[in-house]
Amino acid sequence: MFARKPSSLTGENAKPDLAINGGSSDGCVVIKHSTEIGEGPEGQVEYYSIYMHLKQVFVQKNQPVYRKTELGSVGQCNGNNAMHMEIICDDANLKKLVGREEGDLDLSKDGRMDVVYGDMHFYLPAGATFYGAQPSANSQTGAGTPAYISTTSLFISMRFEKGNCKMSTRQENPEILGEYTCIGNEIIETDYEYNLYKAATTLANRNEIASSAMYELLRFGRVINIDNETAIPAGAAPHWRRVNYPDGQGWVNLNAVSIKKYSDADFPHWMGWNLIADDATPDSQCNSPTLLGWLDSDGDKKYTSKELVQVLGQDKVKERLSRSICKFPTEWEVATLNTRYEWIKTESDLLETPLDTDQYENFIKLITALCFWAEAG
């Protein structure tokens, strides 16, 4: 852990640069977090949390920090009672946390086996078959003519809550790239978890499969404990669930050969998660084509401060941004300050009133006084 005691903003020992623009506290704490989210080396992760603008710091450098430990008290930022907090990690640990470094989830294979938690998810490519009546427990196909055969990709989520199992279906919005919408309301199977062992035992006996393995198939969509259980390959035993499809409901086999399985640990893009690393510019501006595409409300590929303020106030945009993991240069490194901030001296559609030379120099003095990157090591 790194801790920097705050400098005084007033009196003989005050740092004049911190008084610029109304006054900002420079008390800072950086905590290194080490935890396990899964099994084996890929389940061991490290990340950092940063707490800036503290007027008091209650912890010491290299001190172990435990849950609910008081780190300090909120100070000032530009004359306002406020603080800054962020969570960061390097590329290697991002890959461990999310399962990938950028882009969408790979739909050509199942999700991770060594890190599994939360809701379960299923990718159904076009051509998935749905039946109106519930098939027999050990049948690989339904009876009669299918009620529906999908023409586009569908994404099924299986969520457990208070013993119940809730199934939801999503599909991509054809008009908005990367946006996925729910089809109908959740289908709730009451007491599913309470009846799961009995259902697994019955189905296992009919398919001559170990009941513990069948339990995992019904709970996780696949066998997770492959070190101690015999895996159930896709297509070897059915997993029939009633779900929504466009304009209807039906039964689909979630263990069919073409279907891929994931969990929340895979950060599915259809659940809103986005890994954005397409900004190649070294400054602090957002020049990511992906993010700018979301914010271009009129589609003219030009951006004004008025347009951005309006778009960023929309609930749908805020929800999308809340699940975006973005890569950008740290704010707290002195050596790169001018590279990152010289753009604020030039007028543009986004900056109608740039800083003059004196204002920019004061700005750099203030940021320099707050930086800690080299000091923290």
TrEMBL record:
User: CDD domains of this UniProt entry?
Assistant: M23_peptidase (cd12797)
Q: Where is this region: Disordered?
A: 1-20
Xref: InterPro entries: Dup_hybrid_motif
Entries under Gene3D superfamilies matching the protein: Glucose Permease (Domain IIA) (2.70.70.10)
- The protein in question is named Peptidase M23 domain-containing protein
This protein's species is Iodobacter ciconiae
